[in-house]
Amino acid sequence: MSLLPVKERAEARDGGAEPADSAVKPAGSTEPTDSAVKPAGSTEPTDSAVKPAGSTEPAASPSASAGKPTPAYREYLRGERRGRWLVIVSRIALLVALLALWELAARQKWVDSMLTSKPSQLAASFRELALQGDLWKHTWTTGLETIVGIAVSMIAGTAIAVLFWWSTYASKVLEPYIVVLNALPKVALGPIFYIWLGDRYSVYGMAVAISIIVTIMMIENGFKELAKTKLRLMESFGATKLQMLRMVMLPASVPNFIATLKVNVGLTLVGVVMGEFLSSKAGLGYLIIYGGQVFQMNLVMVSVCMLALMSAVLYGVVNGIGRLLMRKYQDGR
Amino acid sequence: MTAAQIEMREVGLSYFTPKQETEALRDVRLTVRAGEFISIVGPSGCGKSTLLSLVSGMLKPTKGKVLIDGQEVTGTSPKVGYMLQQDHLFEWRDVYGNLLVGAEIRRMDRAKAERKAAELMERYGLGGFARHSPAQLSGGMRQRVALIRTLVAEPDILLLDEPFSALDFQTRLTLADEVHRIIREQGKTAILVTHDIPEAIAMADRVLVMSKRPSTISSEYEIRLKPEGEGGEGDGGTLTPWCKREAAGFQAYFNAIWKELEAHVVTSG
Ligand SMILES: Nc1ncnc2c1ncn2[C@@H]1O[C@H](COP(=O)(O)OP(=O)(O)OP(=O)(O)O)[C@@H](O)[C@H]1O
Ligand SMILES: [Mg+2]
């Protein structure tokens, strides 16, 4: 009975109809986007969102109802699909409309195109920059910095969260420091990073500084929740800390990891661009600052568009990884 | 008569939190022989789960001593299988994976554990659900998975904390019979905590009644029932729970325990 609805719901959610999702979640929100997977500790499979149409016997034959969907269920699926398409089409239409309006406003001199630039001009300078090859070089630099930054803060952040779980003493001692570091505006550290790490590596410093604290806090939060519930079972079997880590903490934190990863994409990009603003000689952040200084609106706009594109791609990749992990997580081992 | 396998000597336990201390158990004395089946009943919150946690080694007594096979309990031991009140199934593993958790932690022979898990699943009506995720099971099915998970680890002593509470009445009675049989066959020692007085009488050789908090064991009923229609003193151990429910003296035990519990519940309210 529940086999099909659960699967279907997962797909329905994964279909991309999640407009509010790209917003950066505040630290401590652990919930993954896929609500099909219950957080650890919830016990009842309440299928309130999806009605198991027509099926009556839960225990008798779980695969029977999956064989031939009833007309009502098919109708429901069709409705879902239609809704999904409508959202996608509307998104594209909105983008086109905005671009058209922009172009029109610039051409009709409603606004000063010196200040606002316009889409056609942007396309032209994009082509120019792309042909020179410079744009790719800068995009690649920023992209690499972001990916490395995310990887470093995820790995180091998880390691520190594990340490905090392992030693309650350490976590208690260090807690106020973490809170203060979290509140500290990381830009203030820019000059320090520059002097310590040089113009290239200070960007990494900034990126990691911005995202690692939130990573630690989010992952640690998830750990604490688990410690109250699932670990009691492990304890009853006499599990060692290492076994608890391997069998419970890490696998149960998968949804939390994904949520953290999504937050990290946004934060790390902020860190990277900020780092480039402050010190770098390459990257999209550098390009934007440079374009602003020589008053080349086109250069600035193209770079900003590239940044937007890059964050979309990164977000998509993270989403894909998340879905892959989630599927593994859902199907057991 | 075999020697005591579980012994609690004047055990007291208080929970300490920064705000207050809660005295859950006071002066609990208990001896359980090897192969014996004990039931514990008592008002909610009196410390039944606490008592099981003490025997399992997950809690240390504030006062007194807990001994298993003559040795003081200092931590969890592979001899003891504790089925917790909550099922704590792992959502990231399928049912089969969940059943093997205990065996995995204790590094037992995997093939053997797998065979045992498969057999028990079949017997407890979970055949065909091996690859399901726990989210796809009902509350009663989850409880059965938790029970099998405990049995797969092959403990000598079974601590069962309300193992049948989420089951429908039919399944409850049949499963009780089944579990009783397994425990008897393999000569395991068992402590069962339940709120169901008939179940406590039907399953056990002895029923212990606990008083309200700070609680202690207020009385003990040795269950001696003979099969219906036969004369002479019966030995409770040989009867199935089902038969015991129909035996002549059953109602008398029920009434006695009911009266006693009523007094505890009323005064604790
Ligand atoms: N971790 C804890 N910290 C503080 N107090 C606790 C803790 N666990 C239990 N207690 C207290 O100890 C008492 C006994 O709890 P316990 O869980 O053993 O009761 P119980 O007899 O199993 O109840 P029930 O039948 O409802 O399961 C309760 O009053 C409870 O408030
Ligand atoms: Mg309890």
From TrEMBL, chain B:
<keyword id="KW-0813">Transport</keyword>
<keyword id="KW-0067">ATP-binding</keyword>
<dbReference type="GO" id="GO:0005524">
    <property type="term" value="F:ATP binding"/>
</dbReference>
<dbReference type="InterPro" id="IPR003439">
    <property type="entry name" value="ABC_transporter-like_ATP-bd"/>
</dbReference>
<feature type="domain" description="ABC transporter">
    <location>
        <begin position="8"/>
        <end position="237"/>
    </location>
</feature>
<dbReference type="Pfam" id="PF00005">
    <property type="entry name" value="ABC_tran"/>
</dbReference>
<keyword id="KW-0547">Nucleotide-binding</keyword>
<protein>
    <submittedName>
        <fullName>ABC transporter ATP-binding protein</fullName>
    </submittedName>
</protein>
<dbReference type="InterPro" id="IPR003593">
    <property type="entry name" value="AAA+_ATPase"/>
</dbReference>
<dbReference type="InterPro" id="IPR027417">
    <property type="entry name" value="P-loop_NTPase"/>
</dbReference>
<dbReference type="GO" id="GO:0016887">
    <property type="term" value="F:ATP hydrolysis activity"/>
</dbReference>
<dbReference type="InterPro" id="IPR050166">
    <property type="entry name" value="ABC_transporter_ATP-bind"/>
</dbReference>
<dbReference type="InterPro" id="IPR017871">
    <property type="entry name" value="ABC_transporter-like_CS"/>
</dbReference>
